[in-house]
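User: For my dataset I need records formatted as: sequence, then structure tokens, nothing else. Please produce one.
Assistant:
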Amino acid sequence: MKKKQIEKAKEELLKMRNEVLSEVQENYAASREIGESNVPDLADMSSNAYSREMLHNLNDAQHRKLQDIDAALERIEQDEYGVCAECGEEIAPRRMEVRPFSRYCIECKTEIEKFGE
């Protein structure tokens, strides 16, 4: 990848990272509010439990995304960004634009999804 493309990707990754961290903080605050509410009946308790579970699942997905973003930033520092971690070939620039934290080219990602890592 060209240096200009990598700099643009780094900016995008840092922006995405800040957005995810902001979402996590908002979800944490919402989860605390749900936990502190005075729940008058069983239906409300069930609804609150469901809401907390949904927020927990969302936080797990955000955590994985944050890990992927941090790994991509590390690959930039190591001059390995845009190179497939499986086959070593360059990842298509369009894929990197759409998903700047991609670790695999389309072919390898398809194989991994079929057969596992």
